[in-house]
Design a protein that fits this description.
five-stranded mixed beta sheet, single chain, 2 domains, Major capsid protein gp5 fold, 421 residues, 12 strands, alpha/beta
Length: 421
């Protein structure tokens, strides 16, 4: 109980006692002395009460500031204690969840409906262990800032957005407001320009699923090792599917529309190189970025290429007199280069050619947004493996992809990997 509350209650008691004593017509000497003591205590308590209120107000302010900065850390610590092993055992044996796992699941259930056991996205992060074998979880990444640690989409600047329910739209400015000088002393400056925005919606129309089968031997023998196995498998499978959908999603058959497949729909500039892959082609694209105020320097530009492009460019000398390869020039100039055979189409045609994509983060706005609705829904199939005593679980996630500002991306096509015959 607060000290100020204790003092206030005591003051109320003193007033009641004084009222009783003051009501007597001829109080005794003891009652008079008692009134004097109560009056002195009352006046002393008034001073103490004011001092206590000042002290408690300072404490409240300090506590409020601490809570504002502590909430994110407490969430990370809470998610770090989430155990996938408990989820598997709860689905298999009906075992009750406990500890931080039960607390997280309860909060997720209150936020939205799930058929199975909801699993937060942070729980799919890979955990590290020290040499002694004692679990030492790394800091859980914030859900709005990161995808999976090795995700190509994350390395290219994509931002993951947590959505509780409904659809989400991103109003993006599409008008070009320009300033103008007054031509004469009494002349008018440039007239008003309409402030136009375009909405980039994300809707919960796309469901991603991963089905896992755990044998009875695995459940009984693996113990705590099952935690890492389930986490790694789900991380790898869902991360690869998310990366592929973010760039190559067809927009049909339940898939979201990817950045490369939907370049024309999103308004992304696509430049047909139709020449051998070289640093010159990437330098020209980076220059277009800077000219359009999309990037301030080449170091702000990120490139996503296939391994075949690296293989070709790392074997071609620049021809400027220095013993350097084309790929080395690109590494020196650009901010980051990511390689993937999953999120870019395979080389095709004669001569063999492929594509690459460049992105930049301008003004703190990510080039690609990936929306995730709620948490990962873990559902048990009690029938498929009932005869063998195994456990089959399905992880479902609802996701969508959109591009906020197409000026922050550029698609390069026709990067040839061999000379034309």
């Amino acid at each position: 109980m607060l000290e100020s509350v204790k003092i206030a209650r005591r003051q109320s008691e003193i007033r009641q006692n004084l009222a009783e004593l003051a009501g007597k017509e001829s109080p005794s000497e003891d009652e008079i002395r008692s009134m004097e003591k109560l009056d002195l205590e009352y006046r002393t308590n008034e001073t103490r009460y004011r001092a206590t209120l000042i002290a408690e107000d300072t404490e409240r302010r300090d506590a409020g500031n601490e809570l504002e900065t502590r909430s994110a850390q407490e969430l990370s610590d809470l998610m770090a204690g989430f155990e996938m092993r408990q989820v598997a055992l709860a689905l298999d044996e009906g075992r009750q969840l406990d500890g931080q796992t039960a607390e997280v699941v309860t909060e997720l259930r209150n936020a939205g409906g799930f058929r199975g056991i909801p699993v937060p996205w942070q729980a799919l992060e890979t955990r590290n262990t020290v040499a002694s074998g004692t679990p030492d979880p790394i800091q859980t990444r914030p859900i709005i800032d990161r995808l999976f640690p090795d995700s190509v989409a994350a390395r290219m600047g994509a931002q993951m957005i947590s959505i509780e329910s409904g659809a989400l739209e991103w109003p993006v400015v599409t008008s070009a407001v320009s300033a103008g000088w007054a031509p004469t002393e009494a002349g008018n400056v440039a007239g008003p320009t309409a402030y136009v925005t375009a909405d980039r919606p994300m809707k919960p129309d796309h469901n991603l699923g991963v089905q896992m089968r755990l044998t009875r031997k695995t459940l009984k023998q693996s113990g705590a090792a099952l935690e890492q196995a389930v986490r790694r498998d789900m991380n790898g499978a869902m991360g690869a599917a998310m990366d592929q959908a973010a760039f190559l999603g067809t927009g049909a058959d339940g898939q979201p529309l990817g950045v490369i497949t939907g370049a024309a729909t999103y308004g992304i500039t696509a430049t047909a190189v139709n020449a051998l892959a070289s640093w010159g082609a990437f330098r020209a694209a980076a220059t277009r970025f800077m000219t359009a105020n999309g990037a301030n320097s080449p170091k702000a530009v990120k490139a996503l290429i296939r391994p075949e492009v690296w293989d070709y460019m790392d074997g071609i000398l620049t021809g400027d007199g220095a013993f350097r390869f084309e790929y080395e020039r690109m590494v020196e100039a650009l901010g980051e280069i990511a390689m993937t055979a999953n999120a870019l189409p395979a080389p095709t045609g004669t001569p063999s050619a492929t594509s690459a994509i460049l992105t930049t983060t301008a003004g703190g706005v990510a080039p690609i947004f990936i929306g995730a609705w709620g948490a990962v829904d873990m559902i048990r199939d009690p029938y498929s493996d009932a005869q063998s005593g195994g456990l089959r679980i399905t992880a479902l996630a609802t996701m969508d992809v959109t591009v906020a500002r197409p000026a922050q991306l550029e698609l390069l096509t026709g990067l040839e990997l061999e000379a034309a015959v």
